[in-house]
Amino acid sequence: MKIDINKTVFDLIEEKPELKDILTEIGFKGLDNPILLKSMGKKTSLKRGANLMGIENLADKIENYGYEVSIALWLLDNI
């Protein structure tokens, strides 16, 4: 399963509800608050959210759960 880290947190959780628990384990906070998820989650990409929360090695952490982060998207943003 591929993950586009440029999509919003809200959209990714809507597409893959199991991501909510995974992202919480990785270090995303506030995902259990439906108001916060609907407001900030709709405006914040997964990549930006990780940066704001100080989560490093996001791609590696997501891949540890069996997801694939598109290498092209990840490399373009980290060159």
Q: Count of helices?
A: 6
Structural class: mainly alpha
Instruction: Give the overall shape, derived from the CA principal axes.
Output: globular
Largest sheet descriptor: 2 strands, parallel
Q: Report mean pLDDT, rounded to a whole number.
A: 88
Distance between the termini: 24 Å
Whole-angstrom Rg: 12 Å
DSSP, total strands: 2
Give the oligomer, counting copies of the same chain as homo and different chains as hetero: single chain
The largest beta-sheet arranges its strands as 1-2
Low-confidence stretches: none
Q: Encode the helix/strand succession as letters.
A: EHHHHHEH
The level of helicity is 55-70%
Q: Per DSSP, what share of the residues sits in E-state strands of 2 or more residues?
A: 5-15%
Q: What's the topology here?
A:
Blueprint: E1 2-3, H1 9-15, H2 19-26, H3 34-43, H4 46-53, H5 58-63, E2 68-69, H6 71-77
Parallel strand pairs: 1-2
Description:
- With 79 residues, the protein is mainly α.
- It has 6 helices and 2 strands, in the order βαααααβα.
- The chain has helices at 9-15, 19-26, 34-43, 46-53, 58-63, 71-77, and strands at 2-3, 68-69.
- A two-stranded parallel sheet has the order 1-2.
Concise overview:
This protein has helices at 9-15, 19-26, 34-43, 46-53, 58-63, 71-77; strands at 2-3, 68-69.
Keywords:
6 helices, 2 strands, globular, mainly alpha, two-stranded parallel ribbon, 79 residues
